[in-house]
Amino acid sequence: MKISPFKLERYFAKYEFKSPYLLSSSDCESFSIQELLNLEENSRDKFFDHWLGYTESEGDPELRTEIANLYSTLSKDEIFCFAGAQEGIFVFLNTLLDKNDHIIVQFPAYQSLYEIEKAMGCEVSLWKLDEKLQWGLNLDFLHKNLRDNTKAIIINLPHNPTGMTISSEKLSQIVEFAQKNDLYLFVDEVYRYLEYQEMDRLPAIADIYSKGISLGVMSKAFGLAGLRIGWVATKDMALLAQMRAFKDYTTICNSAPSEFLAKIALKNKSKILQRNLNIINANLQLLDSFFIKYKQLFEWIRPKAGSIGFVKIKFDQNVTDFCLDLVEKQGVLLLPSPLYEFDEKHFRIGFGRKNMPEALTRLEQYVKENFNIGEK
């Protein structure tokens, strides 16, 4: 397969580990191994005794049981683990789709959610969010873009990079449309459980639709990107069987230490999620004040979930030039919207890290120095 470069990941490869202030990170504050082990009594000795042989391809049974507990109706047999969410996306798409199939993908999106299909020779319709509707989804798009060869709908809720979500009623309408037209519905749910209001949490698609596939990962809501543990959840056992066979050509199985640590994290999920939400909520208050103060420069549609938002610049400058100048002068890394192939006027901001206040101070210093804005 020949596939286009992953713009976002290439950008991060260049700047992420050289920039002292990551104000674009999509994940939450992480943990050390020791901090994780401290969450469970006697876990240190168990970790040191853990066997480093091959693991089960679909994931450790106990780990899959803990993952299944994140859902309302699923068992461990309906969970399939991968080395991060990216592998889950890659395996799902290569298993499901054939050349000339058509899919509908919510946009903007993580590039692999549509680029892999293009590389396979599929037809892709991008379902663009409407900024005027607070990044809402217009369901008329589905009806207007349905084709005889449409195979699946791919969405991401809560959404990267806007932090938007939709109502349960609207999700039900999407499910009804998919069911009526016999479509698969793949939902990237990696920010699920980071809703600021619990009433905004949607049911997992794997719980409510027989051809629904939920994507999860330890990286985002749990802040454990280094474990590289992701999964798909679905009641479609035939599809799962095909995905298991395909994984034999990718990673085969996951890391044994990572699975052990992921189990500890999931057993203590309430503590971890609450800690991360506390960080997010404190940082959001600072961002609210910042964007009110500089409303002549930035337009801030406040997210409803997750640890990222999508900010529009109002000044007359290419957003990539702005972001590059910022990282050069202040060491603050933002993510310009062209990396999402979206436009030239937005940037992604991340607020799941403890040091966000310091990064925001640096951003404010840059704004004052470059836009001649003083204290008011």
UniProtKB/TrEMBL annotation:
Signal peptide: none annotated. It is an enzyme of class 2 (transferase). It comes from the Archaea. Pfam families: Aminotran_1_2 (PF00155). Keywords: Aminotransferase, Transferase. One of its GO terms (molecular function) is transaminase activity. Its EC number is 2.6.1.57. Residues 48-362 form the Aminotransferase class I/classII large domain. This is Aromatic-amino-acid aminotransferase 2. It comes from Candidatus Lokiarchaeum ossiferum.
